[in-house]
């Protein structure tokens, strides 16, 4: 019985993972999580980690390099770009032409990125406004060191789960419209949206990558 109780947290995580279609990538949001916690979810099949801060990512990268892909999911400052492109396999938060140009300048490889969209027009959040996405993509399509793989968004926090759906629908339409432009260096393979409280709705509306933090790590400690 004792052994069964210890197995339960992993069984909960496996159930969550198995509920997500195989064509949808799972990113574990690992801000403030320790190495043992992270290794626990890696052992269950998670292979993409999302980090908010460069310094914290560097410490984890030193111990987990080669085991997983590291994605930057926090705001990137211009003076941190040089280090960021050396550590991260993808930068998901390109939110200005200035940052896009700096990444293009500093990287020595073709750098996969996602464009962050401020889908809720929130003043306290970074990201390209939906009305500006088309022009923004055109302006960065000539940056040959950027591999623009798609779009990412963080919706406003909603009290009712179903209320997230309208933002996901809007993002899906922006994604499809962006793909239809067929711009150079703009691939539009990934639509990253949906978090612990909303990921199933996001998947229903076309998300191909979900960001899970609390739901993974709370279960791992149950």
Could you explain the architecture of this structure?
The protein has 9 helices and 8 strands. The protein has 222 residues and is α/β, with parallel strands linked by helices. Strand 2, helix 3 and strand 3 form a beta-alpha-beta unit. The two termini are 16 Å apart. The protein has an 8-stranded parallel β-sheet with strand order 7-6-5-4-3-2-1-8. Helix 1 packs antiparallel against helix 9. The N terminus is likely disordered. It has a single domain, classed as Alpha-Beta Barrel (TIM Barrel).
CATH C-level: Alpha Beta
Helices, by number, come to: 9
Number of strands: 8
In the CATH hierarchy, the architecture is Alpha-Beta Barrel
CATH fold title:
TIM Barrel
Count the domains: 1
Q: Report, as a whole number of angstroms, the end-to-end distance.
A: 16 Å
Shape: globular
What structural category do the secondary elements indicate? alpha/beta
Question: Radius of gyration from the CA trace?
Answer: 18 Å
Strand order of the largest sheet: 7-6-5-4-3-2-1-8
**Could you give the order of the helices and strands?**
HEHEHEHEHEHEHEHEH
Low-confidence stretches: 1-7
* CATH H-tier superfamily: Alanine racemase
Q: Kindly report the average pLDDT value.
A: 93
Protein topology:
Blueprint: H1 2-18, E1 25-29, H2 35-42, E2 48-51, H3 54-64, E3 69-72, H4 81-87, E4 90-94, H5 97-106, E5 111-117, H6 133-140, E6 146-153, H7 165-180, E7 186-192, H8 199-204, E8 209-212, H9 214-220
Parallel strand pairs: 1-2, 1-8, 2-3, 3-4, 4-5, 5-6, 6-7
Helix pairs in contact: 1-9
Question: Can you give keywords for this protein?
Answer:
9 helices, TIM Barrel, single chain, 41% helix, 222 residues, disordered N terminus, alpha/beta, 8-stranded parallel sheet
């Amino acid at each position: 019985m004792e052994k069964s109780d210890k197995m339960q947290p992993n069984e909960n995580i496996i159930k969550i993972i198995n509920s997500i279609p195989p064509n949808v990538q799972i990113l574990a949001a690992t801000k403030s999580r320790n190495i043992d916690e992270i290794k626990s979810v890696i052992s269950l099949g998670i292979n993409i980690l999302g980090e908010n801060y460069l310094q914290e990512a560097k410490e984890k990268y030193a111990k987990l390099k080669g085991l997983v892909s590291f994605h930057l999911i926090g705001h990137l400052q211009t003076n941190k770009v040089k280090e960021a492109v050396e550590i991260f396999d993808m930068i998901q938060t390109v939110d200005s032409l200035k940052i896009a140009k700096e990444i293009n300048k500093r990287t020595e490889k073709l750098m996969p990125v996602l464009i962050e969209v401020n889908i809720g027009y929130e003043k306290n959040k970074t990201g390209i406004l939906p009305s500006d996405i088309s022009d923004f993509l055109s302006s960065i399509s000539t940056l040959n060191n950027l591999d623009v793989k798609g779009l990412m968004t963080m919706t406003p926090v909603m009290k009712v789960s179903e209320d997230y759906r309208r933002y996901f629908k809007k993002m899906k339409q922006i994604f499809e419209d962006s793909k239809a432009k067929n711009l150079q260096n703009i691939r539009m393979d990934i639509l990253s949206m949906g978090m612990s409280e909303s990921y199933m709705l996001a998947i229903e509306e076309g998300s191909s990558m979900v960001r899970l933090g609390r739901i993974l790590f709370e279960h791992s400690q149950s």
